[in-house]
Amino acid sequence: MKVHVRPDNSVTLIENIFIDRYMPSANGEFVKLYLYLLRCAGSGHELSVSSIADFFDHTEKDVRRALSYWEKLHLLSLDYDGAGNITDIVFLNGEETPEEAQEPREAPSVKETDAPPAVPPRTISAARKQQLAQDQEIRQLFFVAEQYLGRPLSNSMSENLLYCYDALKFDADLIEYLLEYCAEKGKTSARYIEKVAIGWYRDGITTVAAAKEQAGLYRGEYFRILAALGITGRNPVPGEIALMKRWLDEDGTDLDLICEACERCILHTGRANLKYVDGILGKWKENGWHTLAEVRAQDRPPAAASAQAQSGRSAYTGRVPASRANASRFSQIPHREYNWSDLEARLTGKTKGAD
């Protein structure tokens, strides 16, 4: 007789070694993501980097940083497809041996560059807040923020803007672009704006130009190209960005022409393949076709294609084409006129008029 325990998806089990060995030195956001992945693994939820970012109101870069952190500690194994997208996340037990698991020890060292750099504390004294509130530039910034957000500023949003200005040392122009950037993505919560600001701070972004350069990695044209391939709901990966950047910037290919190549790729292969699209664009470039009109001008009308499919012969019409009749060398021979009664008499040996 066997005794079985009924599976219970209402609980999530965590190994003690994670709590004893890894959790104390890990960033709190990384721990939350790890626990969330455990929860989803137990319920069979389908995940993506984008969906995880939306759940925590993080940026996708934050999610990838956290996954990379746990991967380097050998607690996660990440599998990728040919386009660089994460396809599978496998939980591992770390590098411990049975003897090591008997007692906790410090987590293995991780390079300083792997962990997020320290950011200034959020504490701003009441006196400093009052001083900043009298600054004309801050007042103007608050007014602009309300226009981008479409609502009056909450206390948390006001504190976020002051934090960016006073602690992160963002100037007013960079903060305005921060608001514009988040508003265009449709994410205007105080938490998300703070996440983006801290991400820029960690990346050493201090000017609008630098922020736009980084944002250019996900420029609107890229999403339109991916949409033409039927790819939605995620950011482009580095390999895709490199190809699309070359088409648009180095080759100067028209965006509509790129989208046409994408649609033909799907039509011919049934799947999204940027290498195939690259081949189509290269062929068009060799032929000197640089616009959508030039490419479509080369397409044969359906009637012409159907006619060619008829083994190269004209359909039977019951008469010889005029061109063939005129070309015949017998066409100039005069026709004979016959007297059928006289011919009959000759053949029967009778003369005309005899009984």
**β-strand number:** 2
Please mark out the parts with pLDDT under 50 across 5 or more consecutive residues, or reply none: 96-115, 303-309, 311-331
CATH topology of the largest domain, by name, is Arc Repressor Mutant, subunit A
Number of domains: 3
Distance between the termini: 125 Å
- Please write the CATH class name of the largest domain: Mainly Alpha
Q: Which class do the helix and strand fractions yield? A: mainly alpha
Biggest sheet overview: 2 strands, antiparallel
Q: Write out the strand line-up for the largest beta sheet, numbering strands in chain order.
A: 1-2
How much helicity do the residues have?
40-55%
* CATH architecture call of the largest domain: Orthogonal Bundle
Q: Overall pLDDT, averaged?
A: 77
Rg, rounded, reads 38 Å
Question: From N to C, what is the helix and strand string?
Answer: HHHHEEHHHHHHHHHHHHHH
The dominant shape is elongated
Number of helices: 18
Strand content: under 5%
Descriptive report:
- The protein folds into three domains: 16-102, Orthogonal Bundle (Arc Repressor Mutant, subunit A), CATH 1.10.10; 132-217, DnaD domain-like (Arc Repressor Mutant, subunit A, Orthogonal Bundle), CATH 1.10.10; 220-297, DnaD domain-like (Arc Repressor Mutant, subunit A, Orthogonal Bundle).
- The chain is 54% helix and 3% strand.
- It has 18 helices and two strands.
- It has helices at 16-22, 28-43, 49-56, 60-72, 126-133, 136-149, 155-166, 172-184, 190-202, 208-215, 220-228, 238-250, 255-269, 274-286, 292-297, 302-308, 322-327, 340-348, and strands spanning 76-80, 86-91.
- It has a two-stranded antiparallel sheet.
- The longest helix is centred in the N-terminal third of the chain and has 16 residues, at 28-43.
- The radius of gyration is 38 Å and the shape is elongated.
- The N and C termini lie far apart (125 Å).
- The model is unreliable at 96-115, 303-309 and 311-331 (pLDDT under 50).
